[in-house]
UniProtKB/TrEMBL annotation:
Belongs to the short-chain dehydrogenases/reductases (SDR) family. SUPFAM superfamilies: NAD(P)-binding Rossmann-fold domains. InterPro entries: Fungal_SecMetab_SDRs, NAD(P)-bd_dom_sf, SDR_fam. One of its GO terms (molecular function) is oxidoreductase activity. This is NAD(P)-binding protein. GO terms for cellular component: cytoplasm.
Amino acid sequence: MAQTHLILGASRGIGYEFTSQLLARGHNVIATQRAATATGSKLAALQSQYPGGQLAILECDVSSEASILGFVARVREALHRETRTRAVLDVVVLNAGVLVYPNRMSELSFANFSHHLTTNTIGPLLAAQHLLKLSQPEEAAHKPVDIKTLVFISSDSGSTTNFRSFEDGFGAYAASKAALNQGLRHLAAEVHRKHPNPPVVLALHPGEVTTDMAANVEVDWEVKGVIGPEESIECMLKVIEEKGAGGADEGGRVSMAKDGLEEETGAATFWTWDGRRYPW
């Protein structure tokens, strides 16, 4: 059955690959890019391959709260045409992110640090916050929108218990991803307490992916296990299907019980692209 997915940050890299693979599987996709027009973009070219309205392209710049609010309003409008009583976003993937290398803490400028925090932490969390508000619209004329699974693209650089000290030049990036991880965990707990049908919240590490964002980064250590966007997304889609809402291991509860672990109901969980639980 066709699902509806929202990919925030889909103009290139893994966001674009998410969009491409989901469309190929017959799903409907709402994809975002920062530019005001899609003309001439990779997404526009992809949209031309699916002329039946399977792909909708919206503008969203996560560094601007006004842009986020406008985007959320357009999502509501796009889903208002659904025939069901409540509209559904089966999966929301918050993929927007930036890496300006190097970003050493001992050399970091205010602007560089702010750029990483705004794009990697604040923007995605605020976008998720406002999207979740669509489930409880203020006006009766607006159809409620239920989000089943909420996925944040994180990084192993953001783990605080598995600190990667050899990653020279990743200070601001790692701090922004660690802040994202803590923020999404709090968001998951708060939403679980407040919402009657809260989404499953996942953080995913996509692996060491060869994307445009990493193309100009040359490091002094060996990067192990490099994979392409196609492999990363194919594997992450399996993880989302298994760990997301309605999956065989929804929220990781089944595997957690097998491992003898205990975690608060509704807590977010952190996974690698190949389905391994990762330490926060």
